[in-house]
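Curious: why this fold?
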Amino acid sequence: MASPTEPSASRSVFLGVDVGTGSARAGLFDEEGKLLGSSSSPIQIWKDGAFVEQSSTDIWLAVCVAVKAACSKAKVAAAEVKSLGFAATCSLVAVDSDSSPVSVSRSGDSRRNVIVWMDHRAVDQAERINTSKSPALEYCGGAVSPEMQPPKLLWVKENLQESWSMVFRWMDLSDWLSYRATGDDTRSLCTTVCKWTYLGHAHMQYVNDTDSRDMEACGWDDEFWEEIGLGDLVEGHHAKIGRSVAFPGHPLGSGLTPTAAKELGLLPGIPVGTSLIDAHAGGVGVIESVPPSETEGCHDLPCIYAFCGTSTCHMAVSRSKLFIPGIWGPFWSAMVPEYWLTEGGQSATGALLDHIIENHASSIHLANRAASQKISVFELLNKLLETIMTEQNQSFIGALTEYLHVLPDFHGNRSPIADPKSKGVIYGLTLDTSDQQLALLYLATVQGIAYGTRHIVEHCNAHGHKINTLLACGGLSKNPIYIQEHADIIGCPIILPRESESVLLGAAILGAVATKKYNSLREAMKALNAAGQVIHPSNDPKVKKYHDAKYKIFRGLYEQQLSNRSVMAQALA
């Protein structure tokens, strides 16, 4: 293998960068889509109730550290890296005319210029926007979420007037990363369509162009922005929110700028592809991973894909557009060109499991036990569940939570109810604070998350989808109990790709497309995706009967919450 100082002239390496909620990661892939090496670097985050903020300066520094470390670890020389692609959370970045950070924080701290995707400061603004009758809302499930950009922008305008007047560019984080790397502020159809109410289907006439292009942004609904009180963003041909857009993988500017190349330890001029939101990049890195034996009943592309991380996104693609209440979309070409994307999601999944574990009385003891055994807390909890199952003589692990039920809406319900005010519920608590009780609570939370996914799948199928297979990637997909419980509860096989780092692969594919080595994003996906393991649901009828009963209780927990909400509202009226 070539050393960092002896590049292999024949080797082409594609670099993908993924900025998640807690870290920036970099991964290097060969021409078969195999991971050569990766590294991560933590990023700072400020949390204060509903307010969650980051720093774009800190994020870029973390990206640089991760890229250099990945190249060193993989023994890849700068000359071997042929392209770069970015994926990131759908966080909102504010910069001035010099590209310097502008504070979006009540603290006034200029470092804090990123409103993180999970920030819920704009719930009231979202409710007001949703009274609009704009056609733009039809394409996001009938209502914007406080996690989308229009409510956050309105919050800043109403609460931080000085910052509002200073901002020269508002950008989704993945678009900002591409801009920071290339100096080209062309926006991605993925970010603009999925988070900014941009109508991507305005560009249908360009999809078959052989020459990739950046397109004038003709999909903004100016009347919508005027109606919600953000008409000033329409000025200058939408200069602050995006004058031009491009399909994912389109080569930006003249490639990597000399300044960015020096910071990243790469060569200037290498192609940089138009970016994707992290979950959508995972889709690009996994969707062509379905083995032929599992595609029966699917229509050209796999039926649904789940990105299981801090939160979970559920994405289904189809040739026809489907309007589904409470499900975002349909978004045209937001992930795979020419396909309509519908997107469900759960705002807290990995974050919820961390919350449940870290706030339990047994948390520190459990963490110490796991550290002494040199395994993760999740691995220890899974081992504990196996032991409890044996001790209780149960035939399957799921049966251990007969008296314990969790509604996982600790950060509201994104889909399919679309109720940001929904609250989490734990039913069946006792005074027990042991490690064993935490293991059961962890299992019940995993099941609650899986029942939420089942609710989304059933809702999508009731409105025209034909979902019978689930593709999974992200950190939680590496947890065998998490995946098996989902398979048993949803009742369909779950496919795990060969490459577990699907988001990094998806980001790398964007750069590979920008090199023109592949004729299309789809061609690159087929070349670089590969199938891995298939997890089938249990064929024991007792398992299905059990989960059907628990699912009925799960659905009832929200109905009871609505009833309780009404009772208390009347009492306070």
